[in-house]
Design a protein that fits this description.
Blueprint: H1 4-16, E1 21-37, E2 40-58, E3 61-67, H2 72-89, E4 105-109, H3 121-136, E5 141-159, E6 164-182, E7 185-195, H4 200-203, H5 207-222, E8 230-236, H6 238-250, H7 255-259, E9 280-283, E10 304-308, E11 311-312, H8 319-325, E12 333-334, E13 343-344, E14 348-351, E15 367-371, E16 378-382, E17 387-391, E18 395-399, E19 402-407, E20 410-415, H9 416-421, E21 423-426, E22 431-434, E23 440-442, E24 445-447, E25 450-453, E26 456-465
Parallel strand pairs: 4-6, 8-15, 14-25
Antiparallel strand pairs: 1-2, 1-5, 2-3, 5-6, 6-7, 8-26, 9-10, 9-14, 10-11, 12-13, 15-18, 16-17, 17-20, 18-19, 20-26, 21-26, 22-25, 23-24
Helix pairs in contact: 1-2, 3-5
């Protein structure tokens, strides 16, 4: 159980031992997944983990240790290990520099009405089984997988500068993945919807219709032709622009990558990196996104403008990268859990909306593609080179300003700075999403993020068939 007095005691012991900085993080994380596949209950799991970590600066070096035993003696042992690590590192590591911040204090929780962990397990099983069977009934369905997910993440933070925070997040989500078969060919389409909310979100939707809609898209796509490869004008939907920004540009804007020379954006502050229509923001609390009011260094996460009207304005920072690169901490030091040390990560990364109506984006396109995100499977990026390749979902041909026939899942590729400079229209329909099922990976850690934007038109992008 959480004991803030214990966290303060550890901090005091670290200061008495000669540490110039001490921080203690406690976490209690609970996850639940209910899933069914082809009419059979596949999983009903509930996992609870808790523990604390201690990070110190001793002799000018970092030391870090964690423990699952939340009591004084194990905590004191962990403190001793952290100090020993710092002492051993101090002779070879660069002296630690951390930017100053105001000590934050407070308690905040995401909004919810019905705690998903209080809901009768049988009702969850009944819902998942019913939806899965209905989606699997459709002709030509080779596989139907349905899942319900929930998480509760409680984090406490105390440091030797006077910070004391308690943050609690609840989130739920629903997932459907369907595989359709036709003439010896298979097409898989998956989609999920999650909210930082309680079980009321699950009760507010008709998930049978949702799952059937995903399945119908798979059935239609397996009968469709592949996209004609080449470079074309494209309209990207909210999900695709979010995916592209997060993966191909967002990681390049993280301060640790910039510091290490592994980012195409190094040395680019104040320079044009995109069309003047493009403004890119990282924000901790935004409608539809994940809930990150503070990072795991106790820094308040507010709106960070990374790109303003096409000009690179700043990077995402921890306290350490801000000190090294001469910026300000932006609240982007995040850890997967108590057993990991914070690294620079995005929170909710999105393109700001413009003035266009969505339908106007198609009007001047003689031939191109409406690239959709539902069914996207990720891809490959190189933040140091700025290259990307993504396999996105079944999409549509645009012909003479009109949305035409469906094509099978496509790939898009290019250089992110060139692509962003080709943006010539940005719609007003901002949408940011997150997921309880997936998380962003970096340096062996995974954290929940949000991404998105409005519909966006790009004058020229390489498109290929996604088989």
């Amino acid at each position: 159980m959480l004991d803030l007095d214990l966290l303060h005691w550890i901090v005091g012991e670290g200061v008495k031992a000669g540490c110039s900085f001490v921080e203690v993080r406690y976490q209690e994380l609970e996850r639940q997944v209910v899933s069914a596949e082809n009419g059979v209950l596949k999983e009903f799991s509930s996992r609870l983990q808790s523990g604390l970590s201690i990070r110190v600066v001793y002799g000018g070096a970092w030391g870090f240790a964690s423990t699952t035993f939340v009591e004084r003696e194990p905590a004191k042992d962990a403190l001793g290990r952290a100090i020993s690590i710092a002492r051993a590192s101090s002779r070879k590591a660069k002296p630690v520099r951390i930017a100053e911040v105001a000590a934050a204090r407070g308690r905040v929780a995401s909004e919810y009405r019905i705690d998903p962990f209080d809901v009768d397990p049988e009702s969850k099983v009944k819902l998942i089984m019913s939806v899965n069977r209905e989606a699997g009934k459709l002709e030509g369905v080779a596989n139907s997988y349905t899942a319900l997910g929930a998480l509760r993440d409680t984090r406490a933070y105390v440091n030797s500068e006077g910070a004391e925070l308690l943050v609690e997040v609840r989130a739920v989500g629903f997932l459907q993945r369907s595989v359709a078969k036709y003439a010896g060919s298979l097409e898989s389409v998956g989609d999920s919807e999650s909210r930082v909310a309680g079980y009321e979100f699950i009760e507010s939707r008709d998930w049978t219709n949702y799952a059937v809609d995903v399945t119908e898209l798979a059935r239609e796509a397996v009968r469709a032709k592949a996209a004609k490869p080449g470079a074309f004008p494209v309209v990207l939907d909210n999900e695709v622009i979010g995916l592209m920004l997060h993966e191909a540009f967002g990681h390049a804007s993280e301060g640790d990558g910039v510091e290490a020379g592994a980012s195409i954006l190094k040395g680019m502050l104040g320079r044009r990196v995109a069309s003047e229509l493009v403004t890119v923001i990282d924000e901790g609390v935004v409608e539809g996104g994940y809930f990150v009011p503070y990072d795991d260094e106790g820094v308040r996460k507010e709106k960070t403008i990374v790109v303003e009207e096409g000009v690179l304005k700043g990077y995402l920072h921890s306290r350490a990268t801000a000190a090294v690169l001469g910026g300000q901490p932006t609240g982007n030091a995040r850890a997967q859990d108590y057993s990991h040390t914070p690294i620079v990560r995005q929170t909710n990364y999105y393109m700001a909306p413009g003035d266009w109506r969505v339908e106007e984006l198609f009007e001047d396109v003689k031939y191109g593609y409406y690239v959709r995100g539902r069914g996207a499977r990720g891809g490959e990026v190189n933040p140091g080179l700025g290259t990307f390749t993504f396999r996105v979902g079944p999409s549509y041909v645009i012909r003479k300003g009109e949305v035409g026939e469906l094509v099978r899942a496509v790939t898009i590729s290019g250089y992110i700075l060139e692509t962003l400079k080709e943006v010539d229209a940005v719609a007003r329909d901002l949408k940011v999403t997150t997921s309880v099922f997936g998380a962003c990976g970096k340096a062996g850690q995974r954290v929940h993020v949000g991404d998105g934007g409005p519909h966006v038109r790009v004058k020229r992008m390489v498109v290929g068939g996604g088989r």
